[in-house]
Amino acid sequence: MKFFIDTADVAEIRELNDTGLVDGVTTNPSLIMKSGRDIIDVTKEICGIVKGPVSAEVTATDYEGMMKEAKVLAKIAKNICIKLPLTMDGLKACKALTDKGHQTNVTLCFSANQALLAAKAGATYVSPFIGRLDDQGLDGMELIEEIRTIFDNYDFKTQILAASIRTVNHVKEAALIGADVITAPPATLKALVKHPLTDKGLSDFLADWAKTGQKISK
Ligand code: G3P
Question: What is the DSSP string of 180-198?
């Protein structure tokens, strides 16, 4: 399973990227707004930090506009993945961009049929939003299961990028189902390592080690 960071905060990206556990980054207009930075500047900086795909989202809603914006975004760096909304124009742009050899991420996916369309449009990734479905009293993880089944039925190569991940349980459940990628905010990724028994075990080991008076490296 690949781990993408869902943020445009360069300091957070640098810190997590240094762990070697990060495979890519996803951004969206809201995350760019939160960063307070120019979309081109900040995306360029992110592309220089992370080797893997960096999703940059178009904001035009018509096919022509999306294609124009995609051209600008694609010029930022080789590892740009063009993010497009799950609309008919977005799918059309996805098909055209995929045919030209670009990586694509079709976002704002809330149904299995939408994911099926993204796969048919040749998307590299489709992003089902788990947390936002849960917010509506629905089951975001059920959508991941449905998409996994459909993609496996037809051997679609589009990767399931579980997005709107809010909890460590979301990560575990997406992994159990077989989502190809999760994208999560830095805090959620950092929380994955935490377990009280790890902390307690480590502190007990260190206390006993101190009693030995030994040192491994002199
Ligand atoms: O990248 C889009 C998605 O992950 C947004 O998450 O928490 O705003 O629903 P959220």
Answer: SEEEE-HHHHHHTT--HHH
The pTM (predicted TM-score) of the whole model is: 0.96
| Alpha carbon distance 123, 95 (integer Å) | 7
The CB of 17 under 6 Å from ligand 1? The reply is no
pLDDT in tens, 30-70: 999 999 999 999 999 999 999 999 999 999 999 999 999 99
Q: Distances in Å between the alpha carbon of 9 and those of 25, 33, 105, 142? A: 10, 11, 20, 30
Q: Say if CB 83 and CB 61 are below 8 A apart.
A: no
The strand ranges marked E within the chain are 2-6, 24-26, 54-57, 80-85, 103-109, 125-128, 159-162, 181-184
> Is the CATH code 3.20.20.70 the one for domain 2-212?
yes
C-alpha 165 to ligand 1 mean position (Å): 7
